[in-house]
Design brief:
alpha/beta; Barwin-like endoglucanases; 3-stranded mixed beta sheet
Amino acid sequence: MLVAFVALVAMLTTALTPRLAAAAGSTSYEPMPNVIGLSPSALHSVMFQDQLFYSTKGPGSGGGGWVRVVGEIPAAGTSVPLLSTVTLIVTTTPPPAAPSTGTELMPNVIGLSPSAVHSLMYRDQLYYSTNGPGAGSGTWGRVVGQLPAAGTVVHRLSTVTLEVGSSAAVSTALLSSVAVTTHRTGTHRAPVHHVVTKKPVVHHTVARPTHHVVTKKPVRRHAVAKPVHHVVRRGPSSHPVHRAVRDKVGVATWYSYVPGRCATWYLPFGVRITVTDLANGRSVTCVVTDREGATGDHAVDLSQTQFAELAPLAKGVIPVRVTW
């Protein structure tokens, strides 16, 4: 009886698979994106955008411990059917280090969505500005050009320019049933659906601060009789000393840093600050030990761990009050 039931389920699955594929629009095609060098989160975003499934091979593919893509089948630019499965070669070896301290290799962001670009820029400590359709309102779909080119040595915290374009909207009903799949092993085909909704983040070009050196004029001293100084000794004051609490309201971001330490552009090193999320009232404390490149309303750059105590990392930017 059990054998007959299993055989019936297999027959129904075989018969319905072509119909389900046709209903999902499998006859439509999409250029294979360039995913070489992408991390798992960045790859997930690209596959979600292009409605493609993928399986992984190589070190770390079985347990999901791989860190970047080193090969893809078929090659980038090849036309592949929507909802088809491509093969990616992955590795646990981290990307090569930048040529020298304070510099970074410009990542390849062609074809990436806003969330994927945001993730790569935070990882490499780079700022970026966008030009093209949807750049002003943050509604652009993917990157179509970048300056400088991928692989160019750039300084960390510098600003690169991305040319962006709009793309056709993806059916909400289709994404809710298909989304993006992650195959745990090469033979296991059951999809795990990840539907992630993120608000678009508008990135503005931030001018770097200009440091002014102020030279004091010499004080002219006149020949006068030396005054007699009277030393008056006072006892301890009975009034308590009140220290003025200073604060700054702005936005907080995160980057990969030591928990309990943070970066600002306006406070000296060693100052302990309290960061309060204005949306939910949660607070964390940290010591300023680093400098961030953004100024203006950028209040603090927290470690990844402490930002997660205030809000989900996917938000990227939150309104806060910094007191010290």
